[in-house]
Write a structure and sequence with these properties.
It contains 14 helices and no strands. It is mostly helical. The radius of gyration is 21 Å and the shape is elongated.
């Protein structure tokens, strides 16, 4: 069969029927989530322990050794929330890379919507994310952060994270079928993103370099800035901390970016990444089996 014919007649990304597509996505996500901890003594507790242990290591190293959070109230809360969101993003994207290749036998024998695979991975990671955020809220309360209505802002912020992660996941999974170099390249790029984004440090850190407005062009920076503001509030700084970071530890994203209009750039990047991932995946879906 020629490539042109495969594009026209091969199994598509979505297949037939929205209801069937949604049911398959949910079933596959639930199955993957359950199998992940099958046979484990601690079971689902591992989904909580991994980000908490990662948080503990980073907090000890970067707060006590490099003094990144010095003078910043509730810095541990921000660090934990940022790690939880990053863990979701990296779980989706990393697991999506080999997802189509790893299901080669299924793709060759069963005709089903290919898009189910990356979206089910994203959905399974959302299950983890929901459990992890319970720990974030509990830690925030223990750290002295009062519950506030702004916590509801976390819902649309997480939704944007899901769109971003799903878009990158679709793109990587489709490209990996043809180009196996995608996995090591993404391993390197994800490390660069981690240390280059305000995850272990607050967005206001870029004030020292006079680059805060530039840094806020990044979707990760914009999302984390607004997440810190929504979760912790507009915490004022004083003394040396104010001189280094500005008047607020966790300003809202519009203030950090310089204007609300500038936030259109990171939002446009998220939309563009999702659109690119969707386009590449739907284009490659009918010929996936030919490259496995």
């Amino acid at each position: 069969m020629s490539t042109g014919t495969a594009y026209a007649h091969g199994p598509s990304a979505f297949g037939g029927g929205l209801r069937r597509f949604v049911e398959l996505t949910v079933i596959l996500a639930r199955t993957d989530f359950k199998l992940r901890f099958f046979g484990s003594v601690l079971g689902y507790l591992w989904s909580l322990m991994r980000p908490l242990m990662f948080f503990g290591v980073l907090y000890v190293v970067f707060s006590n050794v490099f003094k990144l959070g010095k003078g910043i109230p509730h810095y541990p809360v921000y660090l934990l929330a940022s790690i939880v969101m990053w863990s979701y993003f990296i779980e989706v994207t990393t697991n999506c890379v080999p997802s189509l290749v790893g299901r080669e036998s299924m793709l060759r024998k069963v005709r089903f919507p290919r898009m189910v695979i990356p979206l089910s991975i994203s959905l399974a990671a959302v299950f983890n994310l929901g459990m992890n955020f319970l720990a974030v809220f509990a830690f925030a309360l223990a750290n002295g952060v009062d519950p506030q209505l702004s916590w509801l802002e976390l819902i649309p912020l997480i939704a944007v994270w899901i769109v971003l992660a799903s878009g990158v996941g679709m793109l990587l999974s489709a490209l990996y079928v043809r180009y196996r170099d995608v996995q090591p390249i993404w391993d390197v790029l994800s490390q660069i993103l981690f240390y280059g984004s305000p995850i272990i440090y607050i967005v206001a850190y870029f004030n020292r370099l006079h680059l805060q407005h530039v840094a806020m062009l990044s979707p990760i920076a914009a999302l984390n800035a607004q997440m810190g503001h929504a979760l912790i509030g507009n915490v004022p700084l004083s003394g040396a901390a104010a001189a280094s970071y500005g008047p607020y530890a966790f300003p809202n994203a519009a203030y950090a970016a310089g204007s609300s209009l500038q936030l259109l750039v990171p939002l446009a990047i998220v939309a563009a990444v999702f659109a690119l991932g969707y386009w590449v995946f739907t284009r490659e879906a009918p010929v996936v089996a030919e490259y496995l």
